[in-house]
């Protein structure tokens, strides 16, 4: 992975890579916490979103498909999933490597379409990390969304999510008493933190 000064993005990218490589061949069509999408669709959406962030920053080519209408077909194997995901993550890391901390207007693909450098990289990281959790939950694997990563992403979520309710995010869920930061983040994004593949 391309190294850059944005550790938060590196951690989120590692989270979704970890989730993707753990998917068994028969699990690509399994349901996910994103109720209208299966595992393959979530991964395609996440890769497309990362390409959209990269293209907004660099002016380069974006995803060749609509990330909000991803193909439901299963991947042909781990290598075909990696062939989609790895270039998307690399391009996004490279794009953000050219963004300097403190920049005030970094273009992003969702409203408000321009953010400070810190919020822009946080938005890309939030997208990758939460979809990593979606995939892990759907496949019954340990979540790569750690407490530290969730804690770092909570301020980003609080800053960005509200205008996107009903489009990119569902209504918030009230956290259970004593919920940890992973659950609080997921609930704020409209996910049930106790969602499991048996649902």
From TrEMBL:
GO molecular function: metal ion binding
All copies of domain Mycothiol-dependent maleylpyruvate isomerase metal-binding, residue ranges: 9-136
The protein's name: Mycothiol-dependent maleylpyruvate isomerase metal-binding domain-containing protein
